[in-house]
Amino acid sequence: MKKFSYILIFSLFIVTFSFAETIKFGVSSVISAGNTVYLYERLNEYISKKLGQNVEFVSKKNYSEMNELIENAEVDIASVCSGAIAFLKDDSYVLLAIPVVNGKSKYQSYFIVKKDFEYKDLKSLKGKTIAFTDKLSFSGTLYPLYFFKNNDIDIEKYFSNIYFTGNHDKSIYLVSKGVVDIAPVDSLIYEHEKIVSPEVINNTKVIFKSPDFPIPPIIASKKINVRLLNRIKSILINMDKDEKGRKILRQLNIDRFEDGLGYDYSDVIKISREVENYKIINTK
User: Fold this and answer.
1) Which residues contact 136 (CB under 8 A, 6 or more apart)?
2) How far is residue 125's CA from residue 188's CA, in Å, rounded to a whole number?
3) Which letter does DSSP use for residue 283 in this model?
4) Whole-angstrom Cα distance, residue 14 to residue 148?
Protein backbone atom coordinates (compact mmCIF):
# COMPACT_ATOMS: atom_id res chain seq x y z
CA MET A 1 0.00 0.00 0.00
CA LYS A 2 2.83 2.38 0.97
CA LYS A 3 4.64 1.55 -2.27
CA PHE A 4 1.48 2.34 -4.26
CA SER A 5 1.15 5.68 -2.47
CA TYR A 6 4.74 6.61 -3.36
CA ILE A 7 4.09 5.73 -7.01
CA LEU A 8 0.88 7.76 -7.04
CA ILE A 9 2.53 10.80 -5.43
CA PHE A 10 5.48 10.58 -7.85
CA SER A 11 3.13 10.32 -10.83
CA LEU A 12 1.16 13.33 -9.67
CA PHE A 13 4.42 15.25 -9.24
CA ILE A 14 5.45 14.44 -12.84
CA VAL A 15 2.05 15.52 -14.20
CA THR A 16 2.07 18.74 -12.14
CA PHE A 17 5.63 19.54 -13.21
CA SER A 18 4.87 18.99 -16.90
CA PHE A 19 1.94 21.40 -16.72
CA ALA A 20 4.01 23.96 -14.82
CA GLU A 21 6.56 24.20 -17.62
CA THR A 22 6.74 27.45 -19.55
CA ILE A 23 4.61 27.58 -22.68
CA LYS A 24 6.29 29.35 -25.60
CA PHE A 25 4.08 31.48 -27.83
CA GLY A 26 5.73 32.43 -31.13
CA VAL A 27 4.76 35.40 -33.26
CA SER A 28 6.24 36.43 -36.61
CA SER A 29 6.47 40.15 -37.27
CA VAL A 30 3.79 40.75 -39.90
CA ILE A 31 4.04 44.34 -38.75
CA SER A 32 7.03 46.18 -37.29
CA ALA A 33 8.57 44.35 -34.34
CA GLY A 34 7.72 47.01 -31.76
CA ASN A 35 4.05 46.99 -32.75
CA THR A 36 4.00 43.18 -32.78
CA VAL A 37 5.25 42.99 -29.20
CA TYR A 38 2.80 45.66 -28.04
CA LEU A 39 -0.21 44.01 -29.67
CA TYR A 40 0.54 40.42 -28.67
CA GLU A 41 2.00 40.77 -25.17
CA ARG A 42 -1.49 41.34 -23.76
CA LEU A 43 -2.77 38.21 -25.47
CA ASN A 44 0.22 36.37 -24.09
CA GLU A 45 -0.55 37.59 -20.55
CA TYR A 46 -4.21 36.66 -20.96
CA ILE A 47 -3.42 33.07 -21.96
CA SER A 48 -0.90 32.80 -19.13
CA LYS A 49 -3.41 33.95 -16.50
CA LYS A 50 -6.14 31.63 -17.78
CA LEU A 51 -3.75 28.66 -17.86
CA GLY A 52 -2.28 29.49 -14.48
CA GLN A 53 1.26 29.07 -15.76
CA ASN A 54 3.97 31.07 -17.46
CA VAL A 55 3.67 31.78 -21.18
CA GLU A 56 6.81 33.15 -22.80
CA PHE A 57 6.46 35.47 -25.78
CA VAL A 58 8.87 34.62 -28.63
CA SER A 59 9.08 37.10 -31.52
CA LYS A 60 10.97 36.52 -34.76
CA LYS A 61 11.66 39.01 -37.50
CA ASN A 62 10.80 36.66 -40.35
CA TYR A 63 8.60 33.66 -41.11
CA SER A 64 11.45 31.27 -41.92
CA GLU A 65 12.89 31.63 -38.41
CA MET A 66 9.48 30.96 -36.86
CA ASN A 67 8.94 27.90 -39.08
CA GLU A 68 12.23 26.52 -37.85
CA LEU A 69 11.17 26.96 -34.21
CA ILE A 70 7.85 25.23 -34.91
CA GLU A 71 9.43 22.25 -36.64
CA ASN A 72 11.97 21.87 -33.83
CA ALA A 73 9.18 22.17 -31.23
CA GLU A 74 10.96 25.19 -29.72
CA VAL A 75 7.62 27.00 -29.54
CA ASP A 76 4.35 25.38 -28.47
CA ILE A 77 1.92 27.67 -30.26
CA ALA A 78 2.52 30.31 -32.92
CA SER A 79 0.73 32.98 -34.90
CA VAL A 80 1.95 32.55 -38.46
CA CYS A 81 1.34 33.84 -41.96
CA SER A 82 -0.81 31.53 -44.06
CA GLY A 83 1.92 31.32 -46.70
CA ALA A 84 4.45 30.07 -44.17
CA ILE A 85 2.25 27.00 -43.60
CA ALA A 86 3.10 25.77 -47.10
CA PHE A 87 6.72 25.33 -46.06
CA LEU A 88 6.11 23.56 -42.76
CA LYS A 89 6.34 19.78 -42.56
CA ASP A 90 2.82 18.37 -42.38
CA ASP A 91 3.61 16.37 -39.26
CA SER A 92 5.00 19.37 -37.35
CA TYR A 93 1.84 21.36 -36.64
CA VAL A 94 -1.93 21.39 -36.22
CA LEU A 95 -4.35 24.26 -36.83
CA LEU A 96 -5.32 25.57 -33.41
CA ALA A 97 -7.47 28.69 -33.80
CA ILE A 98 -8.57 30.95 -36.65
CA PRO A 99 -9.13 34.69 -36.17
CA VAL A 100 -12.39 36.20 -37.39
CA VAL A 101 -12.00 39.82 -38.48
CA ASN A 102 -15.00 41.98 -39.42
CA GLY A 103 -17.12 38.84 -39.52
CA LYS A 104 -14.81 37.01 -41.93
CA SER A 105 -12.08 34.40 -41.62
CA LYS A 106 -10.71 35.42 -45.02
CA TYR A 107 -8.25 38.05 -46.21
CA GLN A 108 -6.72 39.37 -49.43
CA SER A 109 -3.57 40.72 -50.96
CA TYR A 110 -3.93 44.42 -51.78
CA PHE A 111 -1.66 45.99 -54.38
CA ILE A 112 -1.20 49.59 -53.34
CA VAL A 113 0.35 52.70 -54.91
CA LYS A 114 0.65 56.34 -53.89
CA LYS A 115 -2.61 58.26 -54.16
CA ASP A 116 -1.44 60.46 -57.04
CA PHE A 117 -0.02 57.53 -59.04
CA GLU A 118 -1.65 57.45 -62.49
CA TYR A 119 -2.64 53.82 -62.89
CA LYS A 120 -4.53 52.46 -65.90
CA ASP A 121 -3.42 48.83 -66.18
CA LEU A 122 -0.40 46.62 -65.47
CA LYS A 123 1.59 48.42 -68.16
CA SER A 124 1.51 51.48 -65.89
CA LEU A 125 3.80 49.59 -63.50
CA LYS A 126 6.52 48.79 -66.01
CA GLY A 127 9.86 50.27 -64.97
CA LYS A 128 8.59 51.17 -61.50
CA THR A 129 9.85 49.99 -58.09
CA ILE A 130 8.10 47.31 -56.04
CA ALA A 131 8.36 46.32 -52.38
CA PHE A 132 7.47 42.81 -51.23
CA THR A 133 7.34 42.00 -47.52
CA ASP A 134 8.72 38.68 -46.20
CA LYS A 135 9.75 35.97 -48.68
CA LEU A 136 7.23 33.56 -47.10
CA SER A 137 4.42 36.10 -46.80
CA PHE A 138 1.44 34.92 -48.83
CA SER A 139 -0.24 38.30 -49.34
CA GLY A 140 3.00 40.28 -49.45
CA THR A 141 5.09 38.05 -51.74
CA LEU A 142 3.87 34.58 -52.73
CA TYR A 143 0.46 35.44 -54.16
CA PRO A 144 1.86 38.51 -55.99
CA LEU A 145 4.57 36.33 -57.58
CA TYR A 146 1.83 33.89 -58.65
CA PHE A 147 -0.22 36.80 -60.03
CA PHE A 148 2.65 38.25 -62.05
CA LYS A 149 3.66 34.82 -63.31
CA ASN A 150 0.12 34.18 -64.56
CA ASN A 151 0.13 37.53 -66.30
CA ASP A 152 3.39 36.66 -68.09
CA ILE A 153 5.38 39.27 -66.20
CA ASP A 154 9.03 38.61 -65.42
CA ILE A 155 9.33 40.86 -62.40
CA GLU A 156 13.12 41.25 -62.65
CA LYS A 157 12.78 42.69 -66.14
CA TYR A 158 9.48 44.47 -65.52
CA PHE A 159 10.39 46.45 -62.39
CA SER A 160 13.41 48.72 -62.08
CA ASN A 161 14.10 47.72 -58.46
CA ILE A 162 12.74 45.07 -56.10
CA TYR A 163 12.83 45.45 -52.33
CA PHE A 164 11.93 43.32 -49.32
CA THR A 165 10.71 45.36 -46.35
CA GLY A 166 10.11 42.52 -43.87
CA ASN A 167 6.63 43.65 -42.84
CA HIS A 168 3.43 45.18 -44.13
CA ASP A 169 3.21 48.49 -42.28
CA LYS A 170 6.70 49.40 -43.53
CA SER A 171 5.66 48.64 -47.11
CA ILE A 172 2.56 50.82 -46.71
CA TYR A 173 4.64 53.67 -45.28
CA LEU A 174 7.22 53.50 -48.09
CA VAL A 175 4.49 53.69 -50.72
CA SER A 176 2.81 56.62 -48.96
CA LYS A 177 6.12 58.51 -48.96
CA GLY A 178 6.84 57.70 -52.60
CA VAL A 179 9.99 55.72 -51.79
CA VAL A 180 8.60 52.77 -53.76
CA ASP A 181 5.86 52.81 -56.39
CA ILE A 182 3.92 49.65 -55.60
CA ALA A 183 3.61 47.17 -52.75
CA PRO A 184 1.42 44.11 -52.23
CA VAL A 185 0.24 44.02 -48.61
CA ASP A 186 -2.04 42.16 -46.22
CA SER A 187 -5.59 43.55 -46.46
CA LEU A 188 -6.08 43.10 -42.71
CA ILE A 189 -3.04 45.25 -41.92
CA TYR A 190 -4.06 47.85 -44.49
CA GLU A 191 -7.58 48.14 -43.10
CA HIS A 192 -6.24 48.33 -39.54
CA GLU A 193 -3.80 51.08 -40.55
CA LYS A 194 -6.78 53.11 -41.73
CA ILE A 195 -7.73 53.38 -38.06
CA VAL A 196 -4.32 53.80 -36.42
CA SER A 197 -2.45 55.70 -39.16
CA PRO A 198 -5.03 57.42 -41.41
CA GLU A 199 -2.49 60.07 -42.45
CA VAL A 200 -0.40 57.29 -44.05
CA ILE A 201 -3.27 55.38 -45.64
CA ASN A 202 -4.87 58.54 -47.04
CA ASN A 203 -1.80 59.03 -49.22
CA THR A 204 -2.22 55.58 -50.84
CA LYS A 205 -4.79 53.75 -52.94
CA VAL A 206 -5.58 50.12 -53.75
CA ILE A 207 -5.31 49.23 -57.43
CA PHE A 208 -5.92 45.48 -57.17
CA LYS A 209 -7.47 43.03 -54.71
CA SER A 210 -6.80 39.29 -54.82
CA PRO A 211 -9.49 36.67 -54.26
CA ASP A 212 -10.26 35.76 -50.64
CA PHE A 213 -7.96 33.28 -48.89
CA PRO A 214 -8.04 31.72 -45.40
CA ILE A 215 -6.79 34.14 -42.77
CA PRO A 216 -3.38 33.64 -41.05
CA PRO A 217 -3.99 31.15 -38.21
CA ILE A 218 -2.62 30.28 -34.80
CA ILE A 219 -1.06 26.82 -34.97
CA ALA A 220 0.33 24.41 -32.39
CA SER A 221 3.30 22.09 -32.43
CA LYS A 222 2.22 18.46 -32.77
CA LYS A 223 4.57 17.69 -29.89
CA ILE A 224 2.52 19.70 -27.43
CA ASN A 225 0.59 17.77 -24.77
CA VAL A 226 -2.95 17.15 -26.14
CA ARG A 227 -4.64 18.14 -22.89
CA LEU A 228 -2.69 21.40 -22.80
CA LEU A 229 -3.43 22.04 -26.48
CA ASN A 230 -7.16 21.70 -25.83
CA ARG A 231 -6.98 24.02 -22.85
CA ILE A 232 -5.25 26.72 -24.91
CA LYS A 233 -7.74 26.25 -27.75
CA SER A 234 -10.63 26.64 -25.33
CA ILE A 235 -9.13 29.85 -23.92
CA LEU A 236 -8.76 31.36 -27.39
CA ILE A 237 -12.18 30.46 -28.77
CA ASN A 238 -13.88 31.72 -25.59
CA MET A 239 -12.01 35.03 -25.36
CA ASP A 240 -14.97 37.01 -26.70
CA LYS A 241 -17.09 35.80 -23.79
CA ASP A 242 -15.40 37.90 -21.09
CA GLU A 243 -14.71 41.64 -20.94
CA LYS A 244 -10.93 41.39 -20.63
CA GLY A 245 -10.76 38.99 -23.55
CA ARG A 246 -12.96 41.23 -25.69
CA LYS A 247 -10.76 44.23 -24.92
CA ILE A 248 -7.63 42.40 -26.06
CA LEU A 249 -9.40 41.17 -29.20
CA ARG A 250 -10.41 44.75 -30.03
CA GLN A 251 -6.79 45.84 -29.70
CA LEU A 252 -5.81 43.08 -32.12
CA ASN A 253 -8.67 44.06 -34.45
CA ILE A 254 -10.13 40.55 -34.09
CA ASP A 255 -13.81 39.72 -33.48
CA ARG A 256 -13.14 36.28 -32.03
CA PHE A 257 -11.25 33.03 -32.58
CA GLU A 258 -12.79 29.89 -34.07
CA ASP A 259 -11.64 26.27 -33.78
CA GLY A 260 -9.06 25.59 -36.50
CA LEU A 261 -10.43 22.09 -37.12
CA GLY A 262 -11.85 21.82 -40.62
CA TYR A 263 -10.26 24.93 -42.11
CA ASP A 264 -8.73 24.32 -45.54
CA TYR A 265 -5.48 26.00 -46.59
CA SER A 266 -4.90 23.78 -49.63
CA ASP A 267 -5.24 26.66 -52.17
CA VAL A 268 -2.75 28.76 -50.21
CA ILE A 269 -0.33 25.85 -50.06
CA LYS A 270 -0.74 25.05 -53.78
CA ILE A 271 -0.09 28.65 -54.88
CA SER A 272 2.82 29.08 -52.48
CA ARG A 273 4.55 25.94 -53.66
CA GLU A 274 4.03 26.84 -57.30
CA VAL A 275 6.31 29.87 -56.86
CA GLU A 276 8.64 28.55 -54.14
CA ASN A 277 11.53 28.05 -56.58
CA TYR A 278 11.26 31.56 -57.98
CA LYS A 279 14.62 33.13 -57.19
CA ILE A 280 14.52 36.91 -57.05
CA ILE A 281 17.99 38.26 -57.75
CA ASN A 282 17.32 41.91 -58.58
CA THR A 283 16.66 42.97 -54.98
CA LYS A 284 17.78 45.66 -52.56
Assistant:
1) 62, 63, 64, 67, 81, 83, 84, 87, 142, 272
2) 24
3) B
4) 55
State the Cα–Cα distance between residues 69 and 66, nearest whole angstrom: 5
Which parts of 109-224 fold into alpha helices (H)?
143-150, 155-158, 168-176, 187-196, 198-201
Q: Which of 16-20, 113-117, 220-224, 272-276 has the lowest mean pLDDT?
A: 16-20
User: Could you tell me which residues are beta bridge partners of residue 111?
Assistant: 184, 208
Report the interhelical angle of 226-237 vs 33-51 (nearest 10°). Answer: 110
Global pTM reads 0.86
State the burial class of residue 73 (Cβ atoms within 10 Å of its Cβ: 0-12, 13-18, 19+): middle
Q: How far apart are CA 40 and CA 155, in angstroms?
A: 35
pLDDT tens, position by position, 66-115 = 999 999 989 999 998 898 899 998 888 999 999 999 999 999 999 999 99
N-to-C CA span, the chain = 72
> How far apart are the C-alpha atoms of 30 and 185, rounded to whole Å?
10
53 closest CA partner among 27, 86, 88, 16: 16
Task: Show the domains of the chain with their CATH numbers.
Answer: 2-105+215-264 (3.40.190.10), 106-213 (3.40.190.10)
CB 22 within 8 A of CB 54: yes
Alpha-carbon 233 to chain mean position: 18
Give the pLDDT score at 3. Answer: 46
Q: Would you call 231 helix, strand, or coil by DSSP?
A: helix
pLDDT digits (tens, 9 = 90+) for 114-164: 999 999 999 999 999 999 999 999 999 999 999 999 999 999 999 999 999
Q: How many CB atoms lie within 10 A of CB 90?
A: 8
